[in-house]
Design goal:
- By secondary structure, the protein is α+β, with helices and mostly antiparallel strands.
- It is 31% helix and 18% strand.
- The strands form 3 sheets. It has a 4-stranded antiparallel beta sheet with strand order 4-8-9-6, with no helix packed on it.
- It is elongated.
- The structure holds ligand HQG.
- The site of ligand HQG has 18 residues, from helix 4.
- Ligand HQG binds next to helix 4.
- Belongs to the KptA/TPT1 family.
- GO terms for molecular function: NAD+ poly-ADP-ribosyltransferase activity; tRNA 2'-phosphotransferase activity.
- Pfam families: PTS_2-RNA.
- Keywords: NAD, Transferase.
C-alpha cells in the first residue's frame, strides 16, 4: 500500500475523529466511536474516499496506533488526542519516576509561568522516553525536552492515564514538577 496515500488519509481521519466529525456530518457517540459503515459512506474529502480494507490497513499499520476498532469492527475511534469532549474511559496508571514532554523554545516562558496546560486538547500529553518526546517537539521546530517529575506528581495526588497507544496523559503539570 502506498505510504503517502495512507498517511494523507490517516491525517484526515485524525482530524475527523479527534476534532471535527461535523465536517463530514459524522456522528460520534459519547465515547468517541463512529459507525464504520457511516464513516466509509460519508468520507469524501479532497477527492479522497476510503473502503473497509484501507481503513483496516490504517488501523493496523498506523505508526502511532492512533485508531482502534471495537471487537466486531463495526465501530472506530481515535485512541487519544481529541479536542472535542469524548469520554475515553482511560486507564488510570502509576507513572514511572520521570516522563518527558517535547516542546519548543517559544513556549517556555508560558510553561514557566502556567506549567504545562492542555491547550486545545483534553489532556497534557507526556512521553515515556526522550526519543518520543523529541519527535513530538520536533513537529514544531527544534525540540526542547522537559523532564517531568511524574513519580512525585503522582504521590502529590495528580492522576495519570495511559492511552491504548501508550501516550501518558494528565490534566496539568504544575511548574514545580518540571525540570527545564
Ligand atoms: C505547549 C501528537 C505555552 C505544549 C504528538 C505544546 C502528541 C504551552 C503545545 C500529541 C503551555 C500544545 C500532543 C503553556 C503547554 N504556555 N505553551 N502554559 N502548556 N504548551 O499539539 O504535546 O501525531 O496540543 O508544549 O505526538 O505537542 O497528533 O500538544 O507544544 O502525542 O497523534 O502547547 O499530538 O500526536 O500542542 O502533542 P499540542 P503536544 P499525533
Amino acid at each position: 500500500m502506498d505510504n503517502k496515500i495512507t498517511k494523507g488519509i490517516s491525517k484526515l481521519l485524525s482530524y475527523i475523529l479527534r476534532h471535527s466529525p461535523e465536517t463530514i456530518n459524522l456522528n460520534l457517540d459519547e465515547n468517541g466511536w463512529a459507525n464504520v459503515n457511516e464513516l466509509i459512506a460519508k468520507f469524501d474529502l479532497y477527492d479522497k474516499r476510503i473502503d473497509f480494507d484501507l481503513l483496516q490497513y490504517i488501523v493496523e499499520n498506523n505508526d502511532k496506533k492512533r485508531f482502534a476498532f471495537n471487537e466486531d469492527k463495526s465501530k472506530i475511534r481515535a485512541n487519544q488526542g481529541h479536542s472535542i469532549a469524548v469520554e475515553l474511559n482511560l486507564n488510570e496508571a502509576e507513572p514511572l519516576a520521570y516522563l518527558y514532554h517535547g516542546t519548543v523554545e517559544k513556549f517556555l516562558s508560558g510553561i514557566k509561568t502556567q506549567g504545562l496546560q492542555k491547550m486545545g486538547r483534553q489532556h497534557v500529553h507526556l512521553s515515556a522516553d526522550r526519543e518520543t518526546a523529541n519527535k513530538v517537539g520536533g513537529r514544531r521546530g527544534k525540540p526542547v525536552i522537559l523532564t517531568i517529575n511524574s513519580g512525585e506528581m503522582h504521590r502529590a495526588g495528580h492522576k495519570f492515564y495511559l492511552s491504548d497507544n501508550n501516550v501518558w496523559l494528565t490534566d496539568v503539570v504544575p511548574v514545580q514538577f518540571i525540570e527545564f
